[in-house]
Amino acid sequence: MKLTDIRLQPRHYINGAWVNGTTTGISINPSNTAEVVAEYARADRNQTDDAIGAAADALPQWALSTPQRRAEALDMVGSELLARKEELGELLAREEGKTLPESIGEVARAGQLFKFFAGEAIRIQGETLASVRPGIQVDITREPVGVIGIIAPWNFPFAIPAWKIAPALAYGNTVVFKPAELVPACGWALAEIISRSGLPAGAFNLIMGSGREVGQTLIEHPAVNAVSFTGSVGTGKRVLEATTSRGAKVQLEMGGKNPLVVLGDADLDQAVDCAVQGAYFSTGQRCTASSRLIVTRDIHDAFVVRLRNRLEALKVGNALERGIDMGPVVDQSQLEQNQAYLNIGREEGAVHVWGGERVERATPGHYMLPALFLAQPEHRIASEEIFGPVACVMEAQNYEHALALANDTPFGLCAGICTTSLKHAVHFKRHAQAGMTMVNLPTAGVDFHVPFGGRKESSYGPREQGRYAAEFYTTVKTSYMLA
């Protein structure tokens, strides 16, 4: 029987055993709000303490485990994710609302992440150097940080936990994983696979519940040596304060208000395609979404017409339905926030070009049409992260003005440009104030084997993914020995 054929009842995974919670919560299918996807266990601070204690007890054994053992465990997880990507993708689509092709692709990416870090587990590098003093050898090695608290968001419930959990385990750390409460079934499904990978009891723990109980305990607990968090800027700042005040290591991935610059020499159809994919796919619910479309005046009107035509053709509906371009918004609260921003945009004088209306489909869900505005830099819809299918076009006089507008934001996750000018492409890559840049590509869509992260208020701490993950999940030791 497939996971999607039954109502799931996820439980916590603490010290190698499945454990009931102190209370119970439910997750709802945003494509069909009459359907309960899961009735899941919710923890309090005491159960969270138990999970942290189990991780601390397991640390000495796992930290000293062989690279081969770690690699085999992670490879097994990756292989099962890839083998079950359709089934797990369907679960993801039901619980989060991402279209089925996007959901299957995300599960596959999670599998690839575990496979990548299986390889990294046996490639942990060090150095041996000659000392400046005679007869002394200097060794530089990387060792695990310790117990890692992982707090993941709802918008990528397989991929983001994977790119945190996999390197944490690969480098010999133990893990306490808290998924978002909107997607407990996805978090549990990933944890269930990890539980069968051969890890010692306590090396990996799943604990579900609220940020107020579980999340706060993770960031404040003295036995948690590091916290990796992805979520809102406001919550991220609270995580930063709580962790740094006690000397713990912290890694934050937060918001984005990413620009896509379109110059007059760009291939217009390609530019519109980049805008649609970047701004509206995944219902705009990704920190890399290009919600600020900065277009030079010579092609501004033509770009807006073509973009509107593309938006009118997008199919919005049940995430499990074939041929759908955009699924529902994740929940009622997010839908109401999106609608509030549409009203703010109109009240502040932004020009509403198309979309944004709530729509009904065969099943009751949180459906809305993709929305497009013409805006000025001072408008809130052009400066604040909405996290929904809402984008605005801003007119630029020329490339220099477009670059200035692109950098005029407190965020700095990614920035894109569409142009056939090598000169402007190279200049933009150098001068865009972002952690990632894209040329003639959507801002959303990154590889699993290279660094991910931003600047300004978008990120704090070492990068995620790729070899650069070692900077967060390891600590460097320098050892001297008389030869």
Task: Name the average pLDDT.
Answer: 97
The main pleated sheet reads as: 7 strands, mixed
Distance between the termini: 62 Å
Overall morphology: globular
Whole-number count of domains:
2
Give the name of the CATH architecture of the largest domain: 3-Layer(aba) Sandwich
Beta-strand residue percentage: 15-25%
Number of strands: 22
Question: Which CATH C-level class of the largest domain is it?
Answer: Alpha Beta
Q: Which homologous superfamily in CATH is the superfamily of the largest domain? A: Aldehyde Dehydrogenase, Chain A, domain 1
Strand order of the largest sheet: 14-15-16-13-12-18-19
Which spans of ≥5 residues are poorly predicted at pLDDT below 50?
none
Explained architecture:
The chain has 483 residues and is of the alpha/beta class. The protein has 2 domains: 3-254 and 458-482, 3-Layer(aba) Sandwich (Aldehyde Dehydrogenase, Chain A, domain 1); 259-439, 3-Layer(aba) Sandwich (Aldehyde Dehydrogenase, Chain A, domain 2). It has 14 helices and 22 strands. Strand 10, helix 8 (233-244) and strand 11 form a beta-alpha-beta unit. Helix 3 (85-96) packs across helix 4 and helix 4 (100-121) packs parallel to helix 5 (159-170). The chain is globular.
